[in-house]
Design a protein that fits this description.
This protein is mostly beta strands. Strand 19 and strand 20 form a beta hairpin. The protein starts with 6 loop residues before the first helix and ends with a strand.
């Protein structure tokens, strides 16, 4: 189905998007939770805490061992662990048997709780049965989706389709932007590798990524802590793959066409003629060590090609005579996408780790988005450039057994350009006859020209401080947003024609053949909007028993919208307990 809008509506859309930018500034924040945590308590057979016990974790997804010592209450915490189900935890203390617990699972954005009991002696005890995954300190409502689950289920290739597997996540009618617990599709936050990729203008997803490059996903639908930015919908957390000490990779290829679909039947009244399509989707990914236990890499590349053939006849009715004009159409839409993902993990030393991630999704499309119906096929022809790149650098620091820090900076960039197929199309105005319903395009002009650039710079830092039985977190976020948009008409103008002169062709594209002519131009085709987001939070999780935790926190947010034309700045402050 084709949709078109007149010039006044286009102006309304631009103004509405400006308002949306102001609204979305209140919900965007650089993402947290691009790793997991193991915490717990070490006790003796009498249930008494064992202070000073050495706790060390290892995994094939972890660069070298990571360790800490228990405090006076026998408690420990090891943060910033990549997700995995093969963690091995070694616990030992003077005068006690050493215990090794294998097959421990760490999930994205969650804290796995593991209590270890040491017995007197000097031997080593290994437990290989998989312990239950218990998260005693998390209040959020979340669903974790692993790489294995995404590969086994019959889903579309984009990560957005997997979100609907979580409870309370349903279709909103906005493709790839689900509604969560009654919210609309523009109230979510989309995070990839700790970077907020939500579109700053529309509030929808801003980056495409196929699940071959994804390690794990977390779908949060409620109960978020103060460290997370405000969201009236869901918070979708995606972690891409990383390298390991072993060389690994895959080559993949997918193909679909109309023969994979069920046949249309004559009772399907909407079916006129077959609309064949071809979808080619292929690529590879590879990861491994550059320096064992020191520097890892992962690289993935996924080009796609999609063609869709449309053929049929549409009709327009003359509102004065009732005569119908039957307009045949026959065209092919073609799109090319180049998805990529790269990540480098560097272990500076036992206390500091760096992670650099880059992922891109540029697309070139040769669509037929011009006015429809049209008697001149050239009016349909448009080309579209969209997509962009994202880059994020994370620093994980362990300052002591009680103080941990996560710091990150990132940038997102995306474009959207809708243009005529060739240079000749720029000079052809769109000509519409309002003698017909729907309005009938008579000339070769495709109408709208659109240039759109959206950029964001993000920075955040978060500190975790263990004080007795309290896990205190505090941090700050900053985000700088920029939106530049230009809209125009091919030929610089749009013509609307009404009521033919006597004896003239009702399908004539000549302006002088009509009694009334309307000229549409854009008074302010260029828009610039800037936004700033500043936030700070503090929260405390008090574990007053081994199985009960009280969580409290407060978050301050300031949102600013700065019009590029020099207008008044809009600033909003809010506090969220």
């Amino acid at each position: 189905m084709k949709w078109r809008f007149d010039g006044m509506f286009k102006l309304f859309c631009i103004d509405a998007l400006v308002v949306l930018l102001a609204v979305m500034a209140t919900t965007v924040v650089m993402a947290q939770g691009s790793s997991g945590t193991i915490s717990g308590r070490v006790i003796d057979t009498n249930g008494q805490p064992i202070p000073g016990a050495d706790v060390v974790v290892t995994s094939k997804y972890l660069q070298g061992p990571r360790g800490t010592a228990t405090n006076l209450d026998g408690e420990y915490l090891i943060p910033y662990l990549p997700p995995g189900n093969d963690y091995k935890i070694s616990v030992e203390a003077v005068g006690y048997n050493k215990v090794i617990q294998s097959n421990v699972t760490v999930s994205l954005g969650t804290a796995t709780t593991l209590q270890v009991t040491l017995t007197s002696g000097g031997t080593e005890v290994e437990v290989t049965s998989r312990p239950p995954v218990i998260t005693l300190k998390d209040t959020k409502v979340a669903t974790t989706l692993t790489q294995q689950e995404m590969e086994m289920l019959p889903l579309q290739r984009g990560y957005q389709q997997t979100l609907y597997l979580a409870p309370n996540v349903v279709s909103s009618g906005m493709g790839g932007n689900p509604g969560v617990a009654g919210s609309t599709g523009s109230e979510n936050i989309f995070m990839i590798n700790g970077l907020n990729t939500t579109d700053p203008v529309t509030g929808t997803f801003g980056t495409n990524l196929n699940f071959n490059f994804i390690r794990e996903m977390e779908v949060n639908t409620g109960g978020l802590d103060a460290e997370y930015g405000a969201s009236t919908g869901g918070l979708f957390n995606v972690l891409t793959k990383s390298g390991t000490n072993e060389l690994h990779g895959e080559v993949f290829a997918y193909y679909t066409d109309q023969s994979f679909n069920a046949n249309a039947h004559s009772t399907d009244m909407s079916v006129t003629k077959p609309q064949p399509f071809h979808n080619y989707d292929y690529g590879f990914d590879v990861g491994g060590p550059i320096l064992k236990d020191r520097l890892w890499y992962f690289v993935g590349y996924n080009p796609t090609l999609f063609t869709h053939h449309y053929e049929g006849t549409t009709s327009a009715t003359n509102i004065f005579t009732g005569a119908q004009v039957h307009v045949p159409y026959k065209y092919d839409d073609l799109s090319r996408n180049w998805f990529s993902s790269a990540k480098f993990n560097y272990r500076v030393n036992d206390k500091h780790n760096l992670e650099l991630a880059v992922f891109t999704d540029p697309s070139h499309m040769w669509y037929n988005e011009g006015p429809f119906p049209t008697i001149d096929a050239r009016a349909l022809h448009t080309r579209r450039y969209q997509g962009g790149y994202n880059v994020v650098l994370k620093w994980y620091a362990t300052w002591s057994s009680k103080i941990f820090m996560e710091t990150g900076v990132g940038k997102t960039h995306s474009i959207l350009q809708i243009l005529p197929w060739d240079h000749a199309g720029f000079g052809q105005p769109e000509i519409l006859s309002y003698n017909f319903s729907p309005a009938l395009s008579l000339g070769p002009g495709s109408g709208t020209i659109d240039y759109d650039n959206r950029d964001s710079f993000q920075a955040e830092t978060k500190v975790t401080w263990l004080i007795g039985k309290n896990e205190v977190k505090f941090g700050a976020n900053y985000e700088d947003l920029k939106w530049e948009n230009f809209q125009g008409y091919t030929g610089g103008i749009q013509y609307g024609l009404y009521l033919n002169n006597p004896g003239t062709n009702p399908l004539s594209p000549l302006l002088h053949d009509y009694k009334y002519m309307y000229r549409y131009t854009l008074q302010n085709p260029a828009k610039k909007e800037y936004g700033k987001y500043i936030a700070a939070f503090v929260q405390d999780k008090w574990s007053f028993t081994d199985y009960q935790t009280l969580s409290a926190g407060v978050r301050f947010e300031r949102n600013e919208v700065l019009p590029g034309n020099g207008g008044a700045t809009l600033g909003l402050n809010s506090y969220s307990p």
